[in-house]
Amino acid sequence: MTRSEWRDGERVRSVEIEPLGGGRYRVTVDGVAGEWAVERLPGDQLRLTSASSTTVAELTAAGARRFVRLGTMDFVVEREATGRRRGGRAHQGGLESPMPGVVTRVMVAAGETVARGQPLLALEAMKMEHVIRAPRDGRIKSIAARAGEMVNGGVPLVELDEPPA
Amino acid sequence: MFSKVLIANRGEIACRIARTLAAMGVRSVAVCSEADRGALHTRVADEVRVIGPAEARGSYLDIAAILRAARSSGAQAIHPGYGFLAEQAGFAAAVEDAGLAFIGPTPEQVRAMGDKRAARAIARDAGVPMVPGAEGHDPAELARLAERLGFPVLVKAALGGGGKGMRLVEEPAGLAEALESATRLAQSAFGDGAVYLEKRIVRPRHIEVQVAGDGQGQAVHLFERECSLQRRHQKVVEESPSPAVDAALRERLTTAAVSLARAARYRGVGTVEFLVAPGGEFYFLEMNTRLQVEHPVTEMVTGLDLVRWQLEIAATGRLPLAQAAIHSSGNAIEARVYAEDASRGFLPQAGTAVRVRWPEGPGVRCDAGIASGDGVPVHYDPILAKLIASGRTRAEALERLTEALDAAVVHGVVTNLPFLRALVRARAVVRAEFDTEWIEREFLAGFAAVASAPVPELALAAAALGELMGVPAALAPRAGARRSSVFATLGRWRHPGLA
What we know:
The structure holds 2 protein chains of 2 kinds.
Chain A: E1 2-8, E2 11-21, E3 24-29, E4 32-41, E5 45-49, E6 54-62, E7 65-70, E8 73-79, E9 94-96, E10 101-106, E11 113-114, E12 119-125, E13 128-133, E14 138-143, E15 150-151, E16 156-161
Antiparallel strand pairs in A: 1-2, 1-8, 2-3, 3-4, 4-5, 5-6, 6-7, 7-8, 9-16, 10-12, 10-15, 11-14, 12-13, 14-16
Chain B: E1 4-7, H1 11-23, E2 27-33, H2 40-43, E3 47-52, H3 63-73, E4 77-79, H4 89-97, E5 101-102, H5 107-114, H6 116-125, E6 133-134, H7 139-149, E7 153-157, E8 167-169, H8 175-190, E9 195-199, E10 205-214, E11 219-231, E12 234-240, H9 247-263, E13 267-276, E14 282-288, H10 295-302, H11 306-316, E15 331-338, E16 340-341, E17 347-348, E18 351-353, E19 355-357, E20 364-368, E21 374-376, E22 383-391, H12 394-407, E23 409-411, H13 417-423, H14 427-430, H15 438-451, H16 457-469, H17 486-489
Parallel strand pairs in B: 1-2, 1-4, 2-3, 4-5
Antiparallel strand pairs in B: 6-9, 7-8, 7-9, 10-11, 10-13, 11-12, 12-15, 13-14, 15-22, 16-17, 18-21, 19-23, 20-22
Helix pairs in contact in B: 4-5
């Protein structure tokens, strides 16, 4: 049996596959099982046939992401690295850049006490400004960005500690 | 006519301009940044010049670098497209000073219309109705003027356009912060922090008139476009004709737009934008002195090629057709495909568009800036393509657009296609009952709920089965030597004006 975990927005979904032979598989998604006959088609497509339906899925890989087209609907899931824990991306106190862009303003300094909702820094990308705010009360432990700096998406920018007692 | 034209732009609009140049037998010169080496717009052009680094400031916004490319390639004229330098008077002037033709209005016209305060004065003098507004020089004066206008008010950048840097202020308490933020954004985006105030019209439609002038006082219109479907003041879906405009209103709108173009002795193609109140009163918004993103809907209903018009006006100083010879028939609707994640606050996306398939079919046109394997850099506006559909009726055009959006595939970079597919199916869109605030007021929340729903089990099963079975195979290498077939990859693109 093969088990894999996939990130779907904020969720982590698990998929277990058990080959039954003859191109048939038992697939369990989030604990719900189904049986499928799976056939490989040209153009990175799979034909999935169950007792009640047939669907063609077109698959594209981009890094850890899989783009899955079912009929005329497109979905994106991301392969979780083995051993990565649930909720892995929601760092305890870290705040990540939501997109690649340029840091335009840093509004707080390390050691400063901040209130929930307070603007911490601003990021500009593709003509849009995005303000990163404190998700809770706390104290700035460190800031890993300077105004004018280019950052990638998903890079930790601010580390937030518990507020001083 | 020119024998060689440089296109000072990138992406879908550079590809679209190159197509008309090819059809007219004019050689095209593309320019690109280091980040755009090998991009589609460089493959469809006859020649390419790499002009600078990824950052637009050193490449697509670098006037000296573009003029060097024009000189070294022997181009006689420069087409600016939209965005970048298209509405910078200094660029238009530098092009003309270099002895080249600027395919657009005169530098003075770009400057006057680009300064929204000057534009308002020109429109007022031409008898075009204005949204009540106010200009002031410091925050205290603007605050007093805002009280007099009455809230809500909009804070707008004097040199802005397309809603960039615009702020809505509901109450006096929010004005100071909005002025500070709008001034800073205006300074960084347009190099000038000047702002002005405008009374906010509630639930308006955005309707614009396509005009063209010969630079000597003659001007014609090519009917209107309905652009009310907007998100954050950015147009998403546009159509022509407007379902909210009857013959009488059309007459008044087009007359006002043509008066403005005549009064300005406008040269080239341009767009006069209006806000239309629910009662049919309309107000001048701004004039865009360039080709609009949404120009294809006008081309589809008139059968005319607006880029060809731009070239002919620039080369001959004459309008290609008189007003009586310009007709509109049927309906056309466009949807803008952006690299942005509609399920996560429309965050811009970058990466490689591994698999791209654009739709084709009767009445369907696709103006695309990427094909399979192309990069989507972080540095530029995230527009990837425009899908446009026409039909004998609005219903037919909308149905074709819906099918085209369903058939379009962009995998590798997240796009707003799911958002567009839901949008064109919304009842208010089908019935044409919307205003510029409708998407945010009534559509987004429902869409967000659908977009954040769990991915279907079948999609996850397919992804995992694919991994087990080696599907997809390892990333396909970028196809090389595609120039000869590149027009095929752009999908069908035809209308009567481009025979």
